[in-house]
Structures are given as C-alpha cells and as structure tokens.
C-alpha cells in the first residue's frame, strides 16, 4: 500500500517557497534577482560560477518556431516545442525552475536534484544539471522508453528505477515514495515537484507564451495538452491577458483522471495523469476535450502525411482535438477563419517503435476495438507484444 504521508513535509516546504516565488514580477528581467537577493558574489566562488553557468545557459535557450499549416476553414498554426535545445516543451520548465531555485538559495553547488520523471522533464533536467555541475537522480519506472533510459543512464551517475506498482496499478505513487525516501537520505537533496511547482508555470508564462503573444495580433483559439498542467497554467494565463475572447481548449488523454475521467492504462506518454496536478488550479480553461490513443495515432500520422511534420504523441493528440473541434459545424465556430494555435510538445523520434510502427499501431487499435486510419487493412495482430510506451 502506498502512503503519501512521507511527502507531506516536502510539499509543505514547497508551498511556502512557492508563495515567495509567485510574488516575483513576471516581468522581472533575466537575473533580476541575481544582484538583488544577495550580497555581491565573487565570480570565482562556487556560487559565482553557478550564476555564470546559468547566465550562459540562458543565452543558449533559443525559441522554437510557430509554423502555419494548410487548413480549409482556419488559419492553423503549430508551435513546435520539439525544436528546443534538449528537444521538448520541458526545456524551459527545467531551466527556469532550476534558475529560480538557485536564486532563492534552495539549490546550491552541492545540491542533488531528485525528480520522478521518465520523460522529457528528466531529459531536460539531466542536461541542465550537467551544464550547471549539479547531480541529478531521475526516478523512473518500467514504462520508460529504451531511448530515454539510455540517454538518462548515459548522463546521470545514478538512475533509480522502481518496479513495484502502486494501488492504482501504475507507478506514479511508488516513484514519489522513492523520491521522498531519497530526499530524506541525501543531504542537500532538492525535489522540484513538477506537478506543483509554480516556477514551471512561470517559465511558460515568461517564455512559451511570450513567443506566442509576440507572433499574433489576434488569436481566437489555443489548444494545449495537459500532463502536469505546467504548460497550460502559464500559457493560458498570458493568452487570456493578451487576446480578448480567446478560447482555451485543454486536451487530455482518454484514461487520464485529470478532468474526472475513469482511470485506464495508457500507452502513449506525455498527456494525461493518474493524479490531478496542483498546477491545474492556475490554468484558465474554457473547454476540455478528451482524445483516445487511436485518435492520437491517427493525428500523428496525419501530421506527417498532410503537413510533413514528424511529431510526438501529444502533438498528435492535440491535433486530433483541433480536427474534431472544427469538423462539420465546428468550422464556423468563430468568424470566417479563426486564428487557431496548437502546441506540439516534442518531436517524433522517441515514438518510432510505437506510434509510427504499423504493428504497434494495429495492436493498439485491436486493443481498443478499432482499426487506425492510415494503415493497410491487415488483420489486427492481437498477439503483438508492444515495446513499452515511448
Ligand atoms: C511529450 C509531452 N507532451 C505533453 C506534456 C504535458 O505538458 P505539461 O506537463 O506541462 O502539462 C509533456 C510533459 O512532460 C510531455 O513530455
């Protein structure tokens, strides 16, 4: 039986810190706090070196493009977060969260970052921690893709893999228990807690949303997938402030409990969750759409075949939601040609053995009692053993 009680002190501490961090002006420029919160730091001291590394890392962050797609009734735009430095929407989240924690003094030269993530957040943390000279221990589970596990083991001295399922049949609670245990054992451990950390929402408010706001005179709809809720919390707030009347559509995966759905085993990582993330309280959401995994596969494959974009699972999920929303009568929902943006969290490479593998896609469809469109009408192979989700 998994218990959450051991996480309580960590959560309480985070909450105190978050209150402080959210009082920071979102407009405070880069390194606003570097000179404000502390006495001058010698650049040759360990702390000074950490600040210098932060500074040069920030300059390497760049901004992923927004591209227009051919669509009949819409001006449709995709923001390609897979073109971030490490490869996903989690880059900014990881960098800005670390930056805020360093500026507050929660993370110092000797800190060890411990986080439960088998996906893009772990990859981003692994890269930024390496660059900052910090130790990082990812806590992963058997659902991690081979590609990601290889990358994490290659760059982190310690990777902890839990194998015991929790009371929901998944691994999330077991992973969080392990994080709590490591934080108790390791002096100077720091747990970012990506499901609750307001610095992450702040990162998307400052970076991801700022790029969108700077690219449009008017935006009518934004479709954003939800996993930890960090992206939608930060981006929706900024878009509501800037674009009058914008509709924010949150997109969730079938089998996720985030918006009250029944839990079910999911095979495609990224969107959806088996817990309701605390960050969601900060999101401004007008509508919620739920997309099945079969629709996700279809969405991904349509993005390649019609638009030449080779993107990850959650991009296909969100694209499928856009397609369904504007199909038929939806085509005239607002104005003649509304400006519609959807966020694409990562690229397709990690999904080659699943979403882009015909056998896997047929196995998935057979599991859901459907045949995915875009595949030859071969007999569904129920016996196919899927590689674990990408
Ligand atoms: C591929 C992918 N898509 C979507 C998301 C969801 O974004 P968020 O956690 O900000 O809600 C994530 C989060 O890790 C992701 O890795």
Set out the fold topology.
Blueprint: H1 8-22, H2 46-59, E1 66-69, E2 75-80, H3 90-104, E3 112-116, H4 120-132, E4 135-140, H5 146-155, E5 160-161, H6 172-185, E6 189-190, H7 198-213, E7 221-225, H8 230-242, E8 247-253, E9 287-291, H9 293-307, H10 313-325, E10 339-344, H11 358-367
Parallel strand pairs: 2-10, 3-4, 3-6, 4-5, 7-8, 7-10, 8-9
Antiparallel strand pairs: 1-2
The protein binds pyridoxal-5'-phosphate (PLP).
List the main descriptive attributes of the protein structure presented here.
globular; 11 helices; 10 strands; 38% helix; four-stranded parallel beta sheet; binds pyridoxal-5'-phosphate; 390 residues; Rossmann fold; alpha/beta; disordered C terminus; disordered N terminus
Describe the structure.
The strands form 2 sheets. Strands 1-2-10-7-8-9 form a 6-stranded mixed beta sheet. It has a domain at 66-87 and 207-367: Rossmann fold (3-Layer(aba) Sandwich), CATH 3.40.50.1100. The longest helix has 16 residues, at 198-213. Helix 4 (120-132) runs parallel beside helix 5 and helix 7 crosses helix 8. The model is unreliable at 1-38 and 373-390 (pLDDT under 50). Strand 4, helix 5 and strand 5 form a beta-alpha-beta unit. The protein is an alpha/beta fold. It contains 11 helices and 10 strands. The chain starts with 7 loop residues before the first helix and ends in a 23-residue tail after the last helix. Pyridoxal-5'-phosphate binds at residues 88-90, 119-121, 225-232, 270-271, 312, 314, 345-346. Its cofactor is pyridoxal 5'-phosphate. Residues 61-324 form the Tryptophan synthase beta chain-like PALP domain. Homodimer. Keywords: Pyridoxal phosphate, Transferase.
């Amino acid at each position: 039986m998994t218990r959450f009680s051991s996480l309580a002190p960590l959560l309480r501490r985070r909450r105190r810190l978050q209150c402080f961090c959210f009082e920071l002006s979102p407009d405070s420029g880069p390194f606003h706090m570097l000179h404000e919160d502390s006495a001058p730091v010698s650049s040759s001291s360990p702390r000074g070196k950490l600040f210098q590394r932060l500074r040069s890392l920030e300059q390497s962050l760049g901004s992923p493009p927004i591209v227009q797609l051919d669509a009949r009734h819409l001006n449709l735009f995709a923001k390609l977060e897979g073109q971030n430095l490490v490869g996903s929407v989690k880059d900014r989240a990881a960098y800005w969260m670390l930056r805020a924690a360093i500026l507050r003094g929660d993370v110092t030269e000797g800190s060890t970052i411990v986080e439960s993530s088998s996906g893009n957040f772990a990859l981003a943390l692994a890269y930024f921690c390496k660059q900052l000279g910090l130790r990082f221990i990812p806590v992963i589970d058997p659902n991690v893709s081979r590609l990601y596990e290889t990358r994490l083991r290659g760059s982190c001295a310690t990777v902890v893999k839990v194998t015991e399922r929790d009371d929901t049949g998944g691994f999330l609670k077991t992973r969080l228990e392990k994080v709590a245990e490591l934080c108790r054992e390791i002096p100077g451990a720091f747990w970012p807690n990506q499901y609750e950390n307001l610095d992450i929402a702040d990162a998307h408010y400052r970076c991801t949303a700022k790029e969108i706001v700077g690219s449009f005179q008017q935006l009518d709809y934004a479709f954003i997938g939800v996993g930890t809720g960090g992206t939608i919390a930060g981006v929706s707030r900024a878009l509501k402030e800037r674009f009058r009347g914008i509709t924010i559509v949150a997109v969730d995966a079938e089998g996720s409990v985030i918006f009250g759905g029944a839990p079910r085993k999911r095979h495609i990582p990224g969107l959806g969750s088996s817990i309701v993330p605390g960050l969601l309280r900060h999101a401004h959401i007008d509508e919620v759409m739920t997309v099945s995994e079969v629709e996700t596969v279809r969405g991904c494959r349509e993005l390649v075949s019609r638009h030449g974009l080779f993107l990850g699972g959650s991009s296909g999920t969100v694209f499928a939601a856009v397609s369904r929303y504007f199909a038929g009568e939806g085509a005239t929902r607002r104005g003649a040609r509304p400006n519609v943006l959807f966020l694409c969290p990562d690229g397709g490479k990690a999904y080659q053995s699943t979403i882009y593998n015909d056998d896997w896609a047929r196995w998935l469809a057979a599991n859901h009692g459907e045949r995915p469109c875009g595949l030859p009408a071969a007999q569904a192979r129920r016996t196919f053993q899927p590689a674990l989700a990408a």
